[in-house]
Design a protein that fits this description.
alpha/beta; TIM Barrel; 2 domains; six-stranded parallel sheet; 13 strands; binds zinc ion
C-alpha cells in the first residue's frame, strides 16, 4: 500500500511536471506569435486584430454596411493605425504589375509580378462567369461615404507602374470583357523604355474603360522623403495627369505600398481622397481609406489559387 502510494505520487509528480513543461512551452510559443503578429501589424499600419475581425464579420454579412465601430478610448496610440473603421465595404481590389511573360528572366523578382496574358484572360473570364462587376475607386469611395450603392459582387482591378504591356496585353482583354480598370502612373517615367506613352494613355482614357490615377513622379519610397518632397511628388503627379486627361485625380497608390501617417496627411493636403497600399485584404473602410489593402496577383498562381483569394 505504501509503495503504491509512493508510485502514484511519483507518477503524478512526473505527470504534473510534464504537463507544466508543455503548458510553459505553449505559453511562450503563443507570446511569440502575438508579438510577431503585432510587429507585422505595426509594419503595415494595419488595424488591430480585434477591430479587423470585427470588420470582416460585419462586412461579410453584407456587401455594404455601416459598422459604427466604437472609438477606442483605451488606445495606446503607439501604433499609427486608424482607430475607427466607420462604414465598411467588402470589395477586393486586385493588384497587377506586368501582364506579359517576363521579358527579362535574369530579373527573377519580375517573375512574381508578371502574369502571362493567357492566365490574365482566364482570370477575367472567371470574374465575368461569376458575375463580378468592376467598379472605379470613385464608386468605391462614394459607397464608403454612403452616397452610392454597390452592384452585386463588386471588384476593382488595378495595374501599377504604367508598363507598356498594359496597353499591348491587358487592355484588349479588358475590352473583351467590358471591364473597367485603374492604371497607376508614375508620371516622370512615361514615354520611355518599357513604359506607356501619353498617346496610349489618352487612347485608353477615351475608351471610357481605363481610369488613370497617381503613382508619384519618380516612384521613390515616400517614407524616405521629407514632408515637402512627399508633397512635391504627390502634387506634381496629380497635376500632370489632370492637365493631360482633364479630370480630377483623386487616388494615389504609394510606391512599394509604403506610406505612413505623415504621407497620408500630405496626400490629403494636396487633394487626394484615398490612397492604396499593397497589404492584403478585401475590407475597405473609412478608417483605412488612405491606405487601402489590395490583393497582389502572383504570376505563378493557377486559376484555382486566384479564385481562392476573395
Ligand atoms: Zn509601383
Amino acid at each position: 500500500m505504501g509503495k503504491k502510494l509512493v508510485r502514484i505520487f511519483k507518477f503524478n509528480s512526473v505527470s504534473i511536471l510534464g504537463i507544466g513543461i508543455i503548458i510553459g512551452v505553449l505559453l511562450i510559443w503563443g507570446l511569440i506569435q502575438v508579438d510577431e503578429i503585432n510587429q507585422k501589424l505595426t509594419l503595415i499600419n494595419f488595424p488591430k486584430p480585434k477591430l479587423f475581425s470585427k470588420a470582416i464579420t460585419q462586412a461579410s454579412s453584407s456587401a455594404l454596411k455601416a459598422t459604427n465601430a466604437a472609438p477606442t478610448a483605451k488606445s495606446t496610440a503607439k501604433i499609427s493605425i486608424p482607430q475607427n473603421f466607420g462604414r465598411t465595404v467588402n470589395v477586393p481590389i486586385l493588384m497587377y504589375h506586368y501582364i506579359g511573360n517576363n521579358p527579362n528572366p535574369i530579373d527573377t523578382a519580375r517573375d512574381y509580378l508578371s502574369v502571362p496574358p493567357d492566365k490574365f484572360d482566364a482570370q477575367m473570364s472567371y470574374l465575368a462567369s461569376k458575375g463580378y462587376t468592376t467598379i472605379s475607386l470613385d464608386t468605391l469611395y462614394a459607397a464608403l461615404k454612403g452616397s452610392a450603392s454597390l452592384p452585386n459582387k463588386p471588384i476593382t482591378l488595378t495595374f501599377d507602374d504604367g508598363y507598356i504591356d498594359f496597353y499591348i496585353n491587358a487592355y484588349p482583354i479588358l475590352k473583351k470583357y467590358n471591364f473597367t480598370a485603374i492604371s497607376f502612373i508614375p508620371t516622370g517615367l512615361m514615354n520611355q523604355g518599357y513604359y506607356l506613352n501619353w498617346d496610349q494613355i489618352r487612347e485608353m482614357h477615351n475608351s471610357g474603360l481605363i481610369i488613370f490615377e497617381a503613382h508619384t513622379v519618380n516612384h521613390y519610397n515616400l517614407n524616405n522623403l521629407s514632408y515637402d518632397k512627399v508633397k512635391n511628388q504627390l502634387t506634381q503627379s496629380k497635376q500632370t495627369l489632370q492637365d493631360i486627361l482633364g479630370y480630377p485625380i483623386n487616388f494615389i497608390a504609394y510606391p512599394y505600398g509604403l506610406s505612413n501617417p505623415s504621407v497620408w496627411q500630405a496626400a490629403k493636403e494636396v487633394g487626394f481622397v484615398g490612397g492604396l497600399g499593397t497589404w492584403g485584404g478585401t475590407i475597405e473602410s473609412e478608417g483605412n481609406i488612405m491606405n487601402m489593402p489590395r490583393i497582389r496577383i502572383a504570376g505563378s498562381w493557377s486559376l484555382a489559387e486566384f479564385a481562392r483569394r476573395f
